[in-house]
Q: What sequence folds into this?
């Protein structure tokens, strides 16, 4: 089963412990090892990071936990593939968000 994390705040915040906890479900403590992604909404722009790897093993996730941008709105996803390939194109959130 895929898992989601959403953040909506009135003031800028960073995904630190929350992203760390979700990422651990993508490898260390959960079965959702088939890709991950996070979108940070920054005014009129979106910073989108995603990989077809286990989030719990990813150095990019570790970087975002400590150096990720402050935002008012973010969504993150870890994937447990039940169909379709484990690939970059299936890592969410996608570019259509």
A:
């Amino acid at each position: 089963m895929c898992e989601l994390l959403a953040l909506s705040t009135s003031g800028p915040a960073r995904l630190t412990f929350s992203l760390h906890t979700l990422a651990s479900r993508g490898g260390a403590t959960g079965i959702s090892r088939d890709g991950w992604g996070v979108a940070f909404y920054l005014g009129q722009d979106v910073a989108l990071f995603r990989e077809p790897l286990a989030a719990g093993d990813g150095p990019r996730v570790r970087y975002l936990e400590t150096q990720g941008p402050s935002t008012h709105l973010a969504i993150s996803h870890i994937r447990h593939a039940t169909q379709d390939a484990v690939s970059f194109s299936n890592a969410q959130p996608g570019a259509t968000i």
User: Anything to note?
Assistant: The two ends are 20 Å apart (CA to CA). The helical segments are 17-25, 59-67. The longest strand covers residues 3-13. The mean pLDDT is 87.
